[in-house]
Amino acid sequence: MGEKGRGFLVILCLCLPLFVHSQCNRKPVVFNFGDSNSDTGGYSIGLGLNFGPPNGRTFFHQPSGRLCDGRLIIDFLCENLHAGYLTPYLESLGPNFTNGANFAISGSSTLPRYKPFSLSVQVLQLLQFRARSLELISKGYKDLVTDEEFNNALYTIDIGQNDLAGSFTYLSYTQVIEKIPSMITEIKNAIWTIYKHGGQNFWVHNTGPLGCLPQKLATTTKNASDFDQYGCLQPLNNAAKEFNEQLRTLCEELRSEMKNVTIVYADIYSIKYDLIAHATNYGFENPLMACCGYGGLPYNYNPNTTCGQTGFNVCNEEAKYISWDGVHYTEAANSIFASKILSTYYSTPQTSFNYFCRTS
């Protein structure tokens, strides 16, 4: 795509949240599974550990349980459906589960199985949540998700980044690649389990460009040949691409094996990498530098003084930064990511996000 065409796409994507509206003809219900990229407070509640200031300062104006200055991709997607933000499954005070629940927990991965809060555990929590909800409904309780709504709900999955990031801390590149099929198997098992319990609609995000995270750039031993033209680490990004290719293949296989299901594969890697590669076109500065951290240029990331810890610094204009804390993205970046997801250009098949609540 030429610069003129790319510029048009930038304008289009920036405007999308303003004119892409939900056309649901039934109540949208979403159940989300994943890690800190979509955790709306589960980790904070589950472990009793608050993500203190400056997290949440942009939109919520106080810490919100999110590792971000404001809203996450999942928040923008819920806004598109005119639905409330997803309540963490572990929320015990004043929860609102009428439009679904969020099982994502920061730090989660697909492996090892049955370790809190791995993907397999999150799915077990869903099954317990469903059984308990239906039991309470039978006793006359209101404002809970019904059996039909569980079946018609959208099940979103965004996980894998921590598997890859963690593996690179103790395995060689070749060993990481060899481990990827076992990660994909866990995602396969999760989808099959939900499907066997009535789930029909799945929205699967692939993983982003790991080698572009300021954290990885600042802490990984590297050679000059490891960098791509935009300053990202190619070995880490290549591992992410391999993970994504296997995940894409899995989605294709499941579409052919399952009956009456919709499985959308969203190419988050391309969305995030494009923003980093063409940051200035979107109005961002220093695309590989964290807004909140320590150390200044080039990455403003120090593992001993991370965002919120004593001695950290934080930028004045987070809207000009892509990375919030070296690992997670700013609300400004998340807004663009969500816009591109809603455009359907990065989805296979090209399906509108609200398709699951438009069908009868």
Automatic annotation (TrEMBL):
<keyword id="KW-0175">Coiled coil</keyword>
<dbReference type="GO" id="GO:0016788">
    <property type="term" value="F:hydrolase activity, acting on ester bonds"/>
</dbReference>
<protein>
    <recommendedName>
        <fullName>GDSL esterase/lipase At1g09390-like</fullName>
    </recommendedName>
</protein>
<dbReference type="Pfam" id="PF00657">
    <property type="entry name" value="Lipase_GDSL"/>
</dbReference>
<dbReference type="InterPro" id="IPR035669">
    <property type="entry name" value="SGNH_plant_lipase-like"/>
</dbReference>
<feature type="signal peptide">
    <location>
        <begin position="1"/>
        <end position="22"/>
    </location>
</feature>
<dbReference type="InterPro" id="IPR036514">
    <property type="entry name" value="SGNH_hydro_sf"/>
</dbReference>
<keyword id="KW-0732">Signal</keyword>
<dbReference type="InterPro" id="IPR001087">
    <property type="entry name" value="GDSL"/>
</dbReference>
<comment type="similarity">
    <text>Belongs to the 'GDSL' lipolytic enzyme family.</text>
</comment>
<keyword id="KW-0325">Glycoprotein</keyword>
<keyword id="KW-0378">Hydrolase</keyword>
<feature type="coiled-coil region">
    <location>
        <begin position="237"/>
        <end position="264"/>
    </location>
</feature>
